[in-house]
Fold Fibronectin type III-like domain-containing protein.
Amino acid sequence: MKKKKKLLVAGIALSVLFSTNLQAQTVNYTPFETKESQKIVNELYNRMTLEEKVAQLHGIVPGSLVDKNGKLSDEKCRKNIPNGIGHVCQFACAQELDPDKLRDFVADLQEWLRKNTPSGIPAICHEEAISGFAAKGATVYPQQLGLACTWNPDLMIEKSRQTAEAMRKVGSTMALSPMVDVVRTSTFNRIEESYGEDSYLSGAMGVAFVQGLQGNDLAKGVAACSKHFLGYGGGSESPEKELTEEILFPHEAIIRCAGSKCTMTGYHSYKGKLVVASAPLIQDYLRGRTGFDGIVVSDYGAIGRLYKGDDMLAKCAAEAMNAGNDLEFSNGKCYPHLPEAMASGIVSEARFEEAVKRALTLKVRLGMLTPNAKLFEKGHLNLDTPDYRQTAYELACQSVVLLKNNGVLPLKPTAKIALVGPNANSFWSLIGDYAYPSMLAFWRRKKPDGQNPYLIPLYDGLKNKKPASMIVGYERGCEWSLPGEATIKSSGDVDPRTSQLTAMMVESADHTDWNAAIKLAKESDIIVAAVGENPALCGEARVRKGIDLPGDQEKFVKELIATGKPVVLVIMGGRPQVIDEIEKGCAAIMHAWYPGEEGGNAVADILLGNVNPSGKLCVSYPKTESEENICYNNQPELLSKVAYPFGYGLSYTTYTYSNLKIQKSTVCTTDKSIKFSFDITNSGKMEGTEIIQLYLSPVDGQPLKPIQLKGFKRISLKPGETQKVKAELMLDQLAYYFEKQWHIMPGKYEIKIGASSIDIRLNSFFSVTGNAKTMKQREFLFSEIH
């Protein structure tokens, strides 16, 4: 813990951590297939039956393997997996098992496979992991959109390392994470799972996620599976240039810089074809433009949506397989028909062999096919250790974005506080759609208790953290939403059995009395109103009209403002909320997203001034409920619809930028980089961390966006302290995509150093001379900042 805290205090630079890993030189790149893995796989493949090979190409859900008591059933196994199985899908969130029993399930399954199937090949047990391992009792970290607002790849690596450690304990070796869709509208219900609107930030955070999850040795780590390829969260129908330069970028980065070997396609279409069977996307964009040599998997049930009817299953399998999709998730609905497809000649044996060998190679790389492979840990397991909770707390603190403060924050220690609102005392305000408790409730309609692990709501956090001289009163005041405000998608990416919202996700055990809350507010010095959404209102398959505060929450806040007492608005949820009608009346506003299990403590510490907020927006915070795609680097005319810009976030201190110096104002297209430096000073009275942002703008009409993020760094400073920042912008970062190649044009460019995308503190110009440079791939994807 001492080492981790030192890193956070020091504000280690992105480039210090990534000086080799984040450069796209693939210096640490290991091919998916090695001579050793090829030997093992070839020998195994040659002795396997056709039925065994097919079984490696799909998964099964744990319900098909256990009895009514949740124990592995020999009868069901002999019926459903006599030839083995490739994957057990969502094996943890689909079962209500404590860590020890979950491990025992995996142990029993692997032992059964070893003894009762022809080749004894173990199964990969995969699970969701964007906010930590989605298992009962496992640490719940902040949801990804909040994690992106930390702009902290260093801590992301530690969080994912801990996640991998927890997964390996129970025997899980693959995560269906990270989600790196570039999302540019807050109306997209799954924006909470993304890293926001910017491709560079998404790429940097995605690389860190994969590095932490997989580690230096995949045989000891957990395989990452990036999703959703390509453009599921928006942008799939963009022109080729933007699709390649921006929507593809996070995938390219984690493949080339972090060695990700698994990619999942989405449910959407590309040029009229579902992407699970889109050869242009899989063969050209994925394998051709990034050099990806790993395994491609389908999203759950996606292959069966190519055509309707049981008589079309072989055709579905053939189209997906021929396009380049290797594995079918979750259950084997279509791929068991591959022998039929090969017999009729619509799938070649060579393509089938390629897919099977990729599936086996992943198991080799994970260390699962070695003699005496360690597939799980013995003894009592703890998936929520103090170290894990500490990381969750630090991430929650750094994810909170202070949007407004007229001086009311930090709260005075002698103040009388009225804590009100539906998110003030509920663990539902802390967790996103892919955390175990919400998955248990939403998909299985079972009620978690918020105690395993302990999810700390804001009320508990304030009681834990407040000084003795502060009085905190609590009244819930209003409900989350109104009846019928949100619905469930009955098709697309949802199991049609889920036909209505789960009531348990919007109910509260607390008495809800509007008038009592207003009375408490009038009798207090300051009002803290905790509002926003919960997992029933935002997330996969949740459909809500509008993105303002749901239900009567806005009306409630207006009445709180009318008391004349200062209102501190604390918003929790999976996306920005339109608050234009109440923004002026609030004394302070902060967005805490879904802050995870330690969210209550983190938000309380920021309210009290124990922690200085440092989060910066990873999205353009909308001013209206427009469904248009809004991004800071495109369509300046849409900025009038933005309340707070990309990269924005306030602090309890102030920072001064100065002394920008470019080492050489003229470079050649054949040069590696342009180097420069500047100073940053904490000019306030409180220690804090600033996130400096490096932007690039073309000056001479180069075909680049008018402004684009090209680097960032967290810098921690004591009051009055100055630090010199040294930066190196790679010339490859000036490249644009045209006619299957990358090009660097000579001309004039502008470097901008900002506290946000529109708050530019320093700027300077440099020129690039020489002939236009072309290349098949860029050598460098990220800048270096020291």
Observations:
- Residues 418 and 521 are 5 Å apart (CA to CA).
- The radius of gyration is 26 Å.
